[in-house]
Specification:
Layout lengths: L18 E5 L5 H14 L6 E4 L2 E4 L3 E6 L5 E3 L2 E3 L6 H14 L5 E7 L6 E4 L12 E7 L2 E7 L7 E5 L4 E5 L2 H4 E5 L9 E7 L3
Antiparallel strand pairs: 1-12, 2-3, 4-7, 5-6, 7-14, 8-13, 9-12, 9-14, 10-11, 10-13
């Protein structure tokens, strides 16, 4: 893969205090279709309860956690034990590592069944991710709007449509200084899979 991480063709989406690099054509259409079909079928999707402000609610999406042995991940009252890498996830991880110039040992998968499924404002700043983590987000399926806002003042809203086969690399101070979310959408009718590759310390 010859794309330059800092190419002017793909400018940093964040105006300050962070880095978010977007590659809309990371996968070719036929490749993206192939991976989407397999992952919808073979991933052990489940819906789990999370704690928000002390209250337990069901997540508005399906999730799965895959990774190297022992790479446990905890957030919002959930402790996730990794399932072993599948062949397809291993392929995608290698492609993501090549472009991001980083290595990953785990992946959180989200399945948004339609526009009613969503992800609220949050930062991926859990202790096991370390400081200034590199997180790579691969999108497969229906397009969805993804948003950033500054953590401290809740302003500087930045929105981008993540399309089928695209990749978003978040690094630097992004997880400290910015929050992100995937809001509900009345227009989204088809499923979307999001794979976020990360490194658990």
């Amino acid at each position: 893969m010859n794309q330059d991480l800092f190419s002017v063709e793909y400018p940093n989406l964040l105006p300050f205090d962070g880095e978010a690099w977007y590659y809309p054509h990371f996968l070719e259409q036929k490749q993206a279709d192939h991976y989407l079909t397999i992952l919808l079928d073979e991933i052990a999707w489940k819906q789990e309860p999370i704690k928000i402000f002390g209250k337990e609610v069901m997540q508005p999406r399906l999730t799965a956690w895959y990774g190297d042995p022992g790479k446990i991940y905890s957030y919002s009252g959930i402790t996730m034990i990794p399932q072993p890498w599948t062949a397809v996830l291993g392929e995608l991880k290698q492609k993501a590592e090549s472009l991001a110039q980083s290595t990953f040992n785990s992946a959180l998968l989200n399945l948004y069944r339609d526009g009613n499924d969503s992800m609220g404002w949050h930062r991926d700043n859990e202790r096991e991710l370390g400081t200034k983590p590199v997180i790579v987000s691969l999108s497969l399926g229906g397009p969805r709007i993804f948003q950033f806002r500054t953590h401290l003042h809740k302003d500087q809203l930045k929105s981008i449509e993540l399309i089928h086969g695209s990749l978003l690399i978040m690094k630097g101070d992004t997880q400290e200084k910015w929050e992100h979310r995937l809001p509900k959408s009345k227009n989204a009718k088809t499923p979307r899979i999001n794979i976020t590759f990360r490194k658990i310390l």
